[in-house]
Design brief:
Blueprint (H helix, E strand, L loop, with lengths): L4 H10 L3 E5 L2 E5 H17 L7 E5 L4 H12 L3 E5 L5 H11 L3 E4 L1 H8 L6 E3 L3 H6 L15 E6 L9 E5 H14 L8 E3 L7 H4 L1 H6 L3 E4 L7 H11 L2 E5 L1 H14 L6 E6 L6 H11 L3 E7 L2 E8 L1 H5 L6 H5 L4 E2 L3 E6 L12 E7 L10 H7 E2 L2 E10 L5 E6 L4 E3 L2 E3 L1 H9 L4 E11 L3 E10 L7 H9 L10 E4 L13 H7 L2
Parallel strand pairs: 1-10, 3-4, 3-5, 5-6, 9-10, 9-11, 11-12, 12-13, 24-25
Antiparallel strand pairs: 1-2, 7-8, 13-14, 14-15, 16-17, 17-19, 18-19, 19-20, 21-22, 23-24
Protein backbone atom coordinates (compact mmCIF):
# COMPACT_ATOMS: atom_id res chain seq x y z
CA UNK A 1 0.00 0.00 0.00
CA UNK A 2 1.22 3.48 -0.89
CA UNK A 3 1.42 5.59 2.26
CA UNK A 4 0.32 8.59 0.18
CA UNK A 5 -3.20 7.18 0.42
CA UNK A 6 -3.19 8.48 4.00
CA UNK A 7 -3.11 12.04 2.68
CA UNK A 8 -5.79 11.20 0.14
CA UNK A 9 -8.04 9.82 2.90
CA UNK A 10 -7.37 12.75 5.23
CA UNK A 11 -8.51 15.11 2.48
CA UNK A 12 -11.63 13.03 1.84
CA UNK A 13 -12.55 12.90 5.53
CA UNK A 14 -11.81 16.52 6.40
CA UNK A 15 -10.72 18.58 3.44
CA UNK A 16 -11.50 21.88 5.18
CA UNK A 17 -9.28 21.05 8.14
CA UNK A 18 -6.23 23.29 8.44
CA UNK A 19 -3.15 21.37 7.28
CA UNK A 20 -0.03 23.39 6.46
CA UNK A 21 1.20 26.36 8.46
CA UNK A 22 4.08 28.79 8.19
CA UNK A 23 4.28 29.96 11.76
CA UNK A 24 0.72 30.75 12.83
CA UNK A 25 -0.49 31.38 9.26
CA UNK A 26 -2.43 28.54 7.65
CA UNK A 27 -1.34 28.27 4.01
CA UNK A 28 -3.32 25.15 3.00
CA UNK A 29 -6.16 22.98 4.25
CA UNK A 30 -6.15 19.22 3.67
CA UNK A 31 -7.99 19.42 0.36
CA UNK A 32 -5.46 21.94 -0.91
CA UNK A 33 -2.52 19.95 0.52
CA UNK A 34 -3.64 16.77 -1.22
CA UNK A 35 -4.47 18.63 -4.42
CA UNK A 36 -1.01 20.21 -4.57
CA UNK A 37 0.65 16.85 -3.92
CA UNK A 38 -1.39 15.23 -6.72
CA UNK A 39 -0.50 18.01 -9.16
CA UNK A 40 3.19 17.83 -8.27
CA UNK A 41 2.97 14.09 -8.85
CA UNK A 42 1.45 14.88 -12.25
CA UNK A 43 4.38 17.18 -13.01
CA UNK A 44 6.84 14.42 -12.09
CA UNK A 45 5.11 11.97 -14.43
CA UNK A 46 5.03 14.53 -17.24
CA UNK A 47 8.81 14.85 -16.88
CA UNK A 48 9.29 11.09 -17.20
CA UNK A 49 9.66 10.28 -13.50
CA UNK A 50 7.97 6.99 -12.74
CA UNK A 51 7.20 4.78 -9.74
CA UNK A 52 10.44 3.60 -8.21
CA UNK A 53 12.45 6.54 -9.57
CA UNK A 54 14.28 8.60 -6.97
CA UNK A 55 13.63 12.28 -6.30
CA UNK A 56 15.91 14.05 -3.82
CA UNK A 57 14.94 16.88 -1.48
CA UNK A 58 17.74 19.28 -0.53
CA UNK A 59 15.76 22.03 1.15
CA UNK A 60 15.13 23.82 4.40
CA UNK A 61 11.91 23.18 6.34
CA UNK A 62 8.92 24.91 4.77
CA UNK A 63 5.31 23.96 3.88
CA UNK A 64 6.23 23.32 0.24
CA UNK A 65 8.73 20.70 1.42
CA UNK A 66 5.81 18.63 2.69
CA UNK A 67 3.94 19.13 -0.59
CA UNK A 68 6.97 17.87 -2.51
CA UNK A 69 7.55 14.93 -0.16
CA UNK A 70 3.97 13.70 -0.37
CA UNK A 71 3.84 14.43 -4.09
CA UNK A 72 6.84 12.15 -4.62
CA UNK A 73 5.06 9.35 -2.76
CA UNK A 74 1.79 10.12 -4.55
CA UNK A 75 3.61 9.51 -7.84
CA UNK A 76 4.93 6.21 -6.49
CA UNK A 77 8.49 7.53 -6.58
CA UNK A 78 11.12 7.28 -3.85
CA UNK A 79 11.95 10.30 -1.68
CA UNK A 80 15.64 10.94 -0.95
CA UNK A 81 15.64 13.64 1.76
CA UNK A 82 19.05 15.31 2.19
CA UNK A 83 19.86 17.39 5.25
CA UNK A 84 19.86 21.06 4.27
CA UNK A 85 22.93 21.66 6.43
CA UNK A 86 25.17 19.50 4.27
CA UNK A 87 27.79 20.95 1.95
CA UNK A 88 26.88 21.07 -1.72
CA UNK A 89 29.49 18.39 -2.50
CA UNK A 90 27.96 16.05 0.10
CA UNK A 91 24.44 16.64 -1.21
CA UNK A 92 25.61 16.11 -4.79
CA UNK A 93 27.20 12.78 -3.88
CA UNK A 94 23.93 11.57 -2.34
CA UNK A 95 21.90 12.73 -5.34
CA UNK A 96 24.22 10.93 -7.72
CA UNK A 97 24.64 7.78 -5.63
CA UNK A 98 20.87 7.42 -5.35
CA UNK A 99 20.43 7.93 -9.08
CA UNK A 100 18.02 10.80 -8.44
CA UNK A 101 16.23 12.01 -11.56
CA UNK A 102 15.51 15.37 -9.93
CA UNK A 103 16.53 17.34 -6.85
CA UNK A 104 13.99 19.66 -5.24
CA UNK A 105 15.86 22.54 -3.57
CA UNK A 106 15.19 25.72 -1.65
CA UNK A 107 16.44 29.08 -2.89
CA UNK A 108 19.31 29.36 -0.41
CA UNK A 109 20.68 25.92 -1.37
CA UNK A 110 20.22 25.81 -5.15
CA UNK A 111 23.50 27.55 -5.96
CA UNK A 112 25.59 25.34 -3.69
CA UNK A 113 24.23 22.20 -5.33
CA UNK A 114 24.14 23.52 -8.89
CA UNK A 115 27.89 24.06 -8.80
CA UNK A 116 28.47 20.40 -7.84
CA UNK A 117 26.12 18.28 -9.96
CA UNK A 118 24.46 17.99 -13.32
CA UNK A 119 21.26 16.48 -11.89
CA UNK A 120 18.15 18.51 -12.76
CA UNK A 121 17.05 20.93 -10.04
CA UNK A 122 13.63 22.35 -9.17
CA UNK A 123 13.60 25.23 -6.71
CA UNK A 124 10.71 25.56 -4.27
CA UNK A 125 8.87 28.84 -4.71
CA UNK A 126 10.25 29.45 -8.19
CA UNK A 127 8.16 30.05 -11.32
CA UNK A 128 8.93 26.47 -12.35
CA UNK A 129 7.64 25.18 -9.02
CA UNK A 130 4.45 27.20 -9.29
CA UNK A 131 3.97 25.88 -12.81
CA UNK A 132 4.42 22.31 -11.56
CA UNK A 133 1.59 22.90 -9.08
CA UNK A 134 -0.67 23.76 -12.00
CA UNK A 135 -0.13 20.38 -13.68
CA UNK A 136 -2.94 17.91 -14.23
CA UNK A 137 -3.36 15.90 -11.01
CA UNK A 138 -2.20 12.30 -11.01
CA UNK A 139 -4.16 9.46 -9.46
CA UNK A 140 -2.36 8.12 -6.42
CA UNK A 141 -0.02 5.38 -7.66
CA UNK A 142 -0.33 1.85 -6.37
CA UNK A 143 2.72 0.53 -4.55
CA UNK A 144 3.35 -2.80 -2.89
CA UNK A 145 4.26 -2.77 0.78
CA UNK A 146 7.77 -4.08 0.13
CA UNK A 147 8.62 -1.36 -2.42
CA UNK A 148 10.76 1.62 -1.53
CA UNK A 149 9.29 4.87 -0.21
CA UNK A 150 12.29 6.61 1.35
CA UNK A 151 16.02 6.35 0.78
CA UNK A 152 17.68 7.67 3.92
CA UNK A 153 21.41 8.34 3.91
CA UNK A 154 23.17 7.80 7.22
CA UNK A 155 25.07 10.71 8.74
CA UNK A 156 28.38 9.28 7.55
CA UNK A 157 30.51 10.06 10.60
CA UNK A 158 32.98 7.28 9.69
CA UNK A 159 33.06 7.60 5.89
CA UNK A 160 30.65 7.88 2.97
CA UNK A 161 27.01 7.69 4.08
CA UNK A 162 25.04 4.58 3.19
CA UNK A 163 21.57 4.68 1.69
CA UNK A 164 19.08 2.92 3.95
CA UNK A 165 16.22 1.43 1.94
CA UNK A 166 12.93 2.20 3.72
CA UNK A 167 9.78 0.57 2.41
CA UNK A 168 6.10 1.48 2.61
CA UNK A 169 5.63 -1.46 4.99
CA UNK A 170 8.37 -0.18 7.32
CA UNK A 171 6.79 3.27 7.52
CA UNK A 172 3.30 1.82 8.01
CA UNK A 173 4.37 -0.42 10.90
CA UNK A 174 6.45 2.39 12.41
CA UNK A 175 3.46 4.75 12.38
CA UNK A 176 1.07 2.22 13.86
CA UNK A 177 3.62 1.33 16.55
CA UNK A 178 3.80 5.04 17.37
CA UNK A 179 0.12 5.02 18.32
CA UNK A 180 0.58 1.84 20.36
CA UNK A 181 3.84 2.67 22.12
CA UNK A 182 4.69 6.37 21.90
CA UNK A 183 1.79 8.81 21.77
CA UNK A 184 -1.74 9.48 20.60
CA UNK A 185 -2.46 11.94 17.80
CA UNK A 186 -5.69 13.82 17.12
CA UNK A 187 -6.79 16.25 14.45
CA UNK A 188 -6.44 19.05 16.99
CA UNK A 189 -2.69 18.45 17.39
CA UNK A 190 0.05 20.44 15.69
CA UNK A 191 3.34 18.87 14.57
CA UNK A 192 6.03 21.53 14.85
CA UNK A 193 9.01 20.90 12.57
CA UNK A 194 11.95 22.56 14.29
CA UNK A 195 14.24 19.60 13.52
CA UNK A 196 15.14 18.77 9.89
CA UNK A 197 12.33 17.22 7.86
CA UNK A 198 15.01 15.12 6.21
CA UNK A 199 15.32 13.06 9.38
CA UNK A 200 13.08 11.90 12.23
CA UNK A 201 10.84 14.96 12.20
CA UNK A 202 9.90 14.24 8.59
CA UNK A 203 9.14 10.60 9.30
CA UNK A 204 6.85 11.69 12.11
CA UNK A 205 4.71 13.73 9.72
CA UNK A 206 3.18 10.41 8.64
CA UNK A 207 1.03 9.76 11.69
CA UNK A 208 0.00 13.42 11.83
CA UNK A 209 -1.22 13.24 8.23
CA UNK A 210 -3.03 9.98 8.99
CA UNK A 211 -4.94 11.71 11.81
CA UNK A 212 -5.53 14.99 9.96
CA UNK A 213 -3.42 17.09 12.35
CA UNK A 214 -1.76 20.45 11.66
CA UNK A 215 1.78 20.71 10.28
CA UNK A 216 3.76 23.78 11.32
CA UNK A 217 7.06 25.00 9.88
CA UNK A 218 8.69 27.78 11.92
CA UNK A 219 9.38 30.93 9.85
CA UNK A 220 13.05 30.63 10.84
CA UNK A 221 13.17 27.24 9.12
CA UNK A 222 14.95 25.63 12.06
CA UNK A 223 15.42 25.44 15.80
CA UNK A 224 14.99 28.72 17.68
CA UNK A 225 14.07 28.44 21.34
CA UNK A 226 12.13 31.71 21.60
CA UNK A 227 10.22 31.00 18.38
CA UNK A 228 9.27 27.48 19.50
CA UNK A 229 7.90 28.67 22.83
CA UNK A 230 5.97 31.49 21.19
CA UNK A 231 4.44 29.23 18.52
CA UNK A 232 3.50 26.57 21.05
CA UNK A 233 1.69 29.12 23.20
CA UNK A 234 -0.29 30.43 20.21
CA UNK A 235 -1.03 27.12 18.45
CA UNK A 236 -1.58 24.78 21.39
CA UNK A 237 -1.35 20.97 21.49
CA UNK A 238 2.09 21.07 19.89
CA UNK A 239 4.08 17.91 19.23
CA UNK A 240 7.72 18.10 18.25
CA UNK A 241 10.61 15.74 17.66
CA UNK A 242 13.88 16.88 19.22
CA UNK A 243 17.40 15.62 19.64
CA UNK A 244 18.62 15.58 23.26
CA UNK A 245 20.81 18.61 22.58
CA UNK A 246 17.70 20.51 21.48
CA UNK A 247 15.85 19.52 24.67
CA UNK A 248 18.77 20.78 26.72
CA UNK A 249 18.91 24.08 24.83
CA UNK A 250 15.15 24.58 25.12
CA UNK A 251 15.22 23.88 28.86
CA UNK A 252 18.12 26.25 29.48
CA UNK A 253 16.43 29.04 27.52
CA UNK A 254 12.98 28.50 29.03
CA UNK A 255 14.30 28.53 32.58
CA UNK A 256 16.22 31.76 31.96
CA UNK A 257 13.10 33.33 30.41
CA UNK A 258 10.73 31.97 33.07
CA UNK A 259 8.59 30.22 30.42
CA UNK A 260 7.06 26.84 31.22
CA UNK A 261 6.30 25.71 27.68
CA UNK A 262 2.60 26.55 27.48
CA UNK A 263 1.03 24.73 24.54
CA UNK A 264 3.62 21.95 24.30
CA UNK A 265 1.83 18.62 24.51
CA UNK A 266 4.57 16.16 23.56
CA UNK A 267 8.30 16.24 22.93
CA UNK A 268 9.67 12.98 21.53
CA UNK A 269 13.41 12.89 22.05
CA UNK A 270 15.90 10.62 20.31
CA UNK A 271 18.99 10.70 18.14
CA UNK A 272 21.70 10.59 20.78
CA UNK A 273 22.31 10.04 24.48
CA UNK A 274 19.93 11.87 26.82
CA UNK A 275 21.80 12.17 30.08
CA UNK A 276 19.87 11.55 33.26
CA UNK A 277 20.68 14.99 34.68
CA UNK A 278 19.33 16.68 31.55
CA UNK A 279 15.99 14.84 31.40
CA UNK A 280 15.46 15.30 35.13
CA UNK A 281 15.88 19.05 34.71
CA UNK A 282 13.63 19.13 31.63
CA UNK A 283 10.79 17.19 33.30
CA UNK A 284 11.05 19.29 36.45
CA UNK A 285 10.62 22.45 34.38
CA UNK A 286 8.18 21.47 31.62
CA UNK A 287 6.25 18.67 33.31
CA UNK A 288 4.96 15.40 31.78
CA UNK A 289 5.46 16.19 28.09
CA UNK A 290 8.41 13.93 27.26
CA UNK A 291 8.58 10.53 25.55
CA UNK A 292 11.79 8.83 24.45
CA UNK A 293 12.25 6.56 21.47
CA UNK A 294 15.27 4.70 20.20
CA UNK A 295 15.72 3.90 16.55
CA UNK A 296 18.18 4.05 13.68
CA UNK A 297 17.87 4.82 10.01
CA UNK A 298 18.06 1.06 9.57
CA UNK A 299 15.01 0.65 11.84
CA UNK A 300 13.49 4.13 11.72
CA UNK A 301 12.13 5.41 15.03
CA UNK A 302 11.03 1.89 15.88
CA UNK A 303 13.27 -0.06 18.25
CA UNK A 304 12.22 0.89 21.80
CA UNK A 305 10.12 3.53 23.56
CA UNK A 306 10.12 4.98 27.06
CA UNK A 307 6.59 6.11 27.79
CA UNK A 308 5.43 9.44 29.15
CA UNK A 309 4.57 7.64 32.39
CA UNK A 310 8.02 6.10 32.72
CA UNK A 311 9.70 9.44 32.06
CA UNK A 312 7.70 11.19 34.79
CA UNK A 313 7.10 8.41 37.33
CA UNK A 314 9.01 8.85 40.59
CA UNK A 315 7.18 6.18 42.63
CA UNK A 316 8.70 3.03 41.17
CA UNK A 317 11.71 1.95 43.24
CA UNK A 318 13.75 1.66 40.03
CA UNK A 319 12.56 4.85 38.37
CA UNK A 320 16.04 6.30 38.00
CA UNK A 321 17.28 3.22 36.17
CA UNK A 322 14.23 3.26 33.91
CA UNK A 323 14.66 6.95 33.17
CA UNK A 324 18.27 6.28 32.17
CA UNK A 325 17.08 3.54 29.78
CA UNK A 326 15.65 3.83 26.27
CA UNK A 327 12.54 1.90 27.27
CA UNK A 328 11.02 -1.36 26.10
CA UNK A 329 10.67 -2.94 22.64
CA UNK A 330 8.10 -1.32 20.39
CA UNK A 331 5.23 -3.40 19.03
CA UNK A 332 6.61 -3.89 15.53
CA UNK A 333 9.92 -5.50 16.48
CA UNK A 334 11.73 -8.07 18.59
CA UNK A 335 14.76 -6.84 20.51
CA UNK A 336 17.56 -9.06 21.80
CA UNK A 337 20.82 -8.39 23.61
CA UNK A 338 23.21 -10.76 21.87
CA UNK A 339 26.75 -12.04 21.99
CA UNK A 340 29.08 -12.29 18.98
CA UNK A 341 27.05 -15.25 17.68
CA UNK A 342 23.66 -13.53 18.22
CA UNK A 343 22.86 -15.81 21.16
CA UNK A 344 20.82 -14.04 23.83
CA UNK A 345 22.89 -13.06 26.87
CA UNK A 346 21.49 -13.15 30.43
CA UNK A 347 19.43 -10.19 31.60
CA UNK A 348 21.64 -7.44 32.98
CA UNK A 349 24.61 -8.51 30.81
CA UNK A 350 25.98 -6.10 28.22
CA UNK A 351 25.91 -7.20 24.59
CA UNK A 352 25.00 -5.80 21.20
CA UNK A 353 21.42 -4.63 20.65
CA UNK A 354 19.86 -6.78 17.91
CA UNK A 355 16.50 -6.11 16.23
CA UNK A 356 14.21 -7.91 13.81
CA UNK A 357 10.74 -7.17 12.52
CA UNK A 358 8.80 -5.28 9.87
CA UNK A 359 10.43 -1.93 10.68
CA UNK A 360 13.92 -3.24 9.84
CA UNK A 361 15.41 -2.31 6.45
CA UNK A 362 15.88 -4.88 3.69
CA UNK A 363 19.41 -3.54 3.17
CA UNK A 364 21.56 -0.64 2.00
CA UNK A 365 21.17 0.85 -1.45
CA UNK A 366 23.54 -0.85 -3.90
CA UNK A 367 25.86 -1.93 -1.08
CA UNK A 368 25.73 -5.68 -0.60
CA UNK A 369 28.87 -5.80 1.53
CA UNK A 370 27.55 -3.34 4.13
CA UNK A 371 24.14 -5.04 4.06
CA UNK A 372 25.69 -8.43 4.78
CA UNK A 373 27.73 -7.00 7.64
CA UNK A 374 24.70 -5.37 9.29
CA UNK A 375 21.97 -7.93 8.58
CA UNK A 376 23.12 -11.32 9.86
CA UNK A 377 21.18 -14.37 10.97
CA UNK A 378 17.86 -12.58 10.52
CA UNK A 379 18.85 -9.76 12.88
CA UNK A 380 19.83 -6.12 12.43
CA UNK A 381 23.11 -5.62 14.28
CA UNK A 382 22.75 -2.05 15.51
CA UNK A 383 26.35 -1.53 16.63
CA UNK A 384 24.94 -0.24 19.93
CA UNK A 385 25.92 -1.93 23.16
CA UNK A 386 23.48 -2.25 26.04
CA UNK A 387 21.69 -4.54 28.45
CA UNK A 388 18.09 -5.50 29.17
CA UNK A 389 16.73 -5.73 32.71
CA UNK A 390 14.24 -8.26 34.05
CA UNK A 391 11.32 -6.00 33.05
CA UNK A 392 12.45 -5.60 29.44
CA UNK A 393 13.91 -2.09 29.74
CA UNK A 394 16.96 -1.61 27.53
CA UNK A 395 19.79 0.60 28.74
CA UNK A 396 22.29 1.68 26.12
CA UNK A 397 25.95 1.90 26.92
CA UNK A 398 27.71 3.08 23.78
CA UNK A 399 28.41 2.34 20.16
CA UNK A 400 30.61 -0.74 20.01
CA UNK A 401 33.34 1.31 18.36
CA UNK A 402 33.35 3.76 21.31
CA UNK A 403 34.06 1.10 23.91
CA UNK A 404 37.27 1.82 25.87
CA UNK A 405 39.44 -1.13 26.91
CA UNK A 406 41.87 -0.08 29.62
CA UNK A 407 44.07 -2.68 31.28
CA UNK A 408 41.93 -5.40 29.73
CA UNK A 409 38.73 -4.02 31.31
CA UNK A 410 35.76 -2.68 29.35
CA UNK A 411 34.76 0.90 30.14
CA UNK A 412 31.61 2.36 28.63
CA UNK A 413 32.00 6.13 28.06
CA UNK A 414 28.35 6.90 28.74
CA UNK A 415 28.62 5.77 32.35
CA UNK A 416 31.47 8.21 32.89
CA UNK A 417 29.63 10.97 31.01
CA UNK A 418 26.54 10.47 33.18
CA UNK A 419 28.66 10.94 36.31
CA UNK A 420 30.31 14.09 34.95
CA UNK A 421 26.99 15.59 33.87
CA UNK A 422 25.78 15.54 37.47
CA UNK A 423 28.36 18.17 38.47
CA UNK A 424 27.19 21.78 38.45
CA UNK A 425 30.29 23.01 36.62
CA UNK A 426 29.68 20.75 33.60
CA UNK A 427 27.41 21.78 30.74
CA UNK A 428 28.37 18.98 28.34
CA UNK A 429 30.82 16.10 28.44
CA UNK A 430 32.13 13.48 26.02
CA UNK A 431 34.47 10.65 26.94
CA UNK A 432 36.82 8.81 24.58
CA UNK A 433 39.78 6.48 24.83
CA UNK A 434 43.33 7.64 24.10
CA UNK A 435 46.17 5.23 23.24
CA UNK A 436 48.44 4.46 26.18
CA UNK A 437 51.59 2.33 26.23
CA UNK A 438 50.91 0.88 29.68
CA UNK A 439 47.12 0.49 29.78
CA UNK A 440 46.28 0.16 26.10
CA UNK A 441 43.84 3.04 26.45
CA UNK A 442 43.11 5.65 29.07
CA UNK A 443 39.90 7.58 29.66
CA UNK A 444 39.90 11.19 28.47
CA UNK A 445 37.01 13.56 29.16
CA UNK A 446 36.23 16.58 27.00
CA UNK A 447 34.24 19.01 29.13
CA UNK A 448 32.25 22.13 28.20
CA UNK A 449 31.90 24.33 31.32
CA UNK A 450 28.49 25.50 32.49
CA UNK A 451 27.92 29.24 31.94
CA UNK A 452 30.10 31.19 34.38
CA UNK A 453 31.65 28.03 35.83
CA UNK A 454 35.29 27.02 36.07
CA UNK A 455 36.16 23.37 35.52
CA UNK A 456 38.61 21.99 38.08
CA UNK A 457 40.04 18.56 37.24
CA UNK A 458 40.66 17.74 40.89
CA UNK A 459 37.09 18.55 41.85
CA UNK A 460 35.70 16.46 38.99
CA UNK A 461 38.01 13.58 39.90
CA UNK A 462 36.68 13.58 43.48
CA UNK A 463 33.13 13.83 42.13
CA UNK A 464 33.67 10.76 39.91
CA UNK A 465 35.24 8.74 42.74
CA UNK A 466 31.97 9.10 44.64
CA UNK A 467 29.94 7.71 41.73
CA UNK A 468 31.90 5.24 39.62
CA UNK A 469 34.72 2.75 40.06
CA UNK A 470 38.20 4.27 40.29
CA UNK A 471 39.44 2.57 37.12
CA UNK A 472 36.67 4.26 35.10
CA UNK A 473 37.67 7.79 36.11
CA UNK A 474 39.12 10.09 33.43
CA UNK A 475 42.88 10.23 33.58
CA UNK A 476 42.84 13.47 31.66
CA UNK A 477 40.46 16.39 31.20
CA UNK A 478 40.27 18.64 28.16
CA UNK A 479 38.22 21.83 28.65
CA UNK A 480 36.63 22.98 25.37
CA UNK A 481 34.19 25.70 24.35
CA UNK A 482 31.99 23.27 22.41
CA UNK A 483 31.85 19.63 21.35
CA UNK A 484 32.04 18.82 17.63
CA UNK A 485 28.67 17.59 16.37
CA UNK A 486 27.16 16.45 13.11
CA UNK A 487 24.07 17.96 11.51
CA UNK A 488 21.77 15.91 13.77
CA UNK A 489 23.44 17.00 17.01
CA UNK A 490 25.45 13.81 17.62
CA UNK A 491 28.86 14.29 19.14
CA UNK A 492 31.62 13.36 16.70
CA UNK A 493 33.84 11.22 18.87
CA UNK A 494 36.01 10.40 15.86
CA UNK A 495 36.97 14.09 15.81
CA UNK A 496 37.70 14.07 19.53
CA UNK A 497 39.91 11.00 19.22
CA UNK A 498 41.77 12.66 16.34
CA UNK A 499 42.68 15.55 18.64
CA UNK A 500 44.50 13.11 20.94
CA UNK A 501 46.78 11.58 18.30
Amino acid sequence: MNIATWLERAAEAGGARPALFLGTDCVANYAEFAGQAARFAGALRAHGIWPGDRVALFAKNCPDYLVALWGIWWAGSVAVPVNGKLHGKEAAWIAENSGAALVVTSADLTGALQAETGVSLLELGSAEWEAALQSAPLACAHRRAEELAWLFYTSGTTGRPKGVMITHRMLTVMALSYFADVDEVTAEDAALYAAPLSHGAGIYCLMHVLKGARHVCPPSGGFDEAEILELAAKLGRVHMFAAPTMVKRLTTYAKAAGQRGTGIRTVVYAGGPMYLADILEAVEWFGPVFVQIYGQGECPMGITALSRHDVTDRTNPRWRERLASVGRAQSGVEVRIGDAEAAEVPRGTVGEILVRGDVVMPGYWQNEKASAETLKGGWLWTGDMGFMDADGYVTMQDRSKDLIISGGTNIYPREVEEALMEHVSVHEAAVVGAPDAEWGEIVVAFVVPAPGAVVDAGVLDAHCRERIARFKRPKRYEVVEALPKNNYGKVLKTDLRARLT
